[in-house]
Design a protein that fits this description.
This protein is an alpha/beta fold.
Length: 361
């Protein structure tokens, strides 16, 4: 009787375990591919590159020394730190660069838009930006808080195309430095969080990223505000971060590039979109090869090989490193060398003043 009871208990336990496995949620389901195809990880870029989209809070001499060791291993010639801030903080970062690795790091200045008041406020912000550029900043970085979170002195959402900011964009044209701007978030953050949403897992694991038409405004409105600025200031050179959140619709992005000659695009944080459409993306990179810039965004050296492999190889079906961004596999674009060189460094050299060209000879 006891043996029968033990067998029944064991059978019930196995049955429950099987049912639990069958009812596994999407979050847990992450199978290892059984596909065997040629290909290998690429840990070092084929050509020296400029990362135009990095964020480093600590730019002490000690921190810079640590960064350079990782950069050298990947063939990264120059890092652009977009978190330069302004005033004394920015100058301290540049001083540390100049006394340690003066040709390996670049800093972009930032503007604090919170509490923008009137046209005079804009002129004062532009004057401070001019000081920052004269102190060594090579460009201006606009964070997504402009258009999403920043409020003016009356407590209203500060639109990207608010005329009180015109002096800032004009100052960048006058000083000959680019503006790297991140506007909004991926469009699915505004869509219904249901089974049709490709970003469902990201929204579940990061619920604060969910947006609505009133939180704080529709995606289309924020993006249009950005484009309004590009068109209003044709002499200012803009780098649209994350391919303007149109990497999943390259036909539309091409139309925007055609309409706005002063707009360039960085590929930071959208390699997963490119790696799932290798033929389409390859044709796009070739067509717009003079308008594309390499960038990564988050500083995680272990993630760079996926970028190199997508851009340089013709490998098939290899993994992406972050499931909540992309639950699909990657394919290589196998870009021609002349396109890779423009993407990796030539276009950045043309847009960002004062870089050491000898690093790329």
């Amino acid at each position: 009787m006891r043996l029968k009871y033990t067998f029944l208990t064991l059978f019930t336990s196995l049955a429950i375990s099987t049912i639990t496995a069958q009812e596994m949620g999407f979050e847990e389901y992450n199978p290892k591919s059984t596909l065997v195809v040629p290909g290998a990880e690429i840990t070092k870029a084929k050509f020296p590159f400029i990362d135009v989209h990095s964020h480093q809070r600590d730019m002490s001499v000690e921190a810079l020394t640590g960064l350079v060791s990782h950069m050298d291993a990947m063939n990264e010639a120059i890092m652009v730190n977009l978190s330069g801030r302004s005033g004394a903080s920015l100058k301290e970062k540049i001083d540390n660069i100049n006394k340690s690795y003066p040709n390996r790091f670049v800093v972009f200045a930032n503007v604090d838009f919170e509490g923008a008041k009137d046209m005079e406020w804009g002129e004062q912000a532009a004057a401070q930006l001019e000081k920052d550029i004269k102190n060594g900043a090579k460009g201006l970085k606009i964070f997504k808080s402009l258009g999403l979170r920043n409020k003016d002195s009356d407590g209203n959402r500060l639109a990207i195309d608010d005329p009180r900011l015109d002096a800032i964009w004009a100052k960048c044209a006058e000083m000959g430095v680019p503006v790297l701007i991140h506007a909004a978030d991926p469009k699915p953050f505004w869509d219904e969080m249901d089974a049709d949403n490709e970003r469902w897992l990201e929204l579940k694991t990061h619920p604060r990223r969910k947006r609505t038409a009133t939180d704080p405004a529709p995606f289309e409105q924020i993006i249009q505000e950005q484009h309004n600025v590009f068109k209003k200031h044709p002499k200012t050179k803009f780098i649209n971060a994350h391919m303007g959140w149109h990497a999943n619709n390259l036909e539309k992005l091409g139309e925007l590039l055609d309409a706005m000659p002063n707009m360039n695009v960085g590929i930071s944080a959208v390699i997963a979109e490119l790696g799932r459409q290798p033929q389409n993306a390859r044709a796009f990179f070739i067509k717009y090869q003079d308008r594309m810039l390499f960038g990564k965004d988050s500083w995680k050296p272990e993630e760079f090989p996926t970028y190199f492999r997508v851009l340089e190889s013709n490998d098939e079906y290899f993994p992406y490193y972050k499931k909540y961004h992309a639950f699909w596999s990657m394919y290589g674009l196998n870009l021609p060398d002349e396109v890779l060189k423009k993407l990796y460094y030539q276009n950045a050299l043309n847009l960002i003043p004062g870089l050491d060209t000898s690093l790329f000879e």
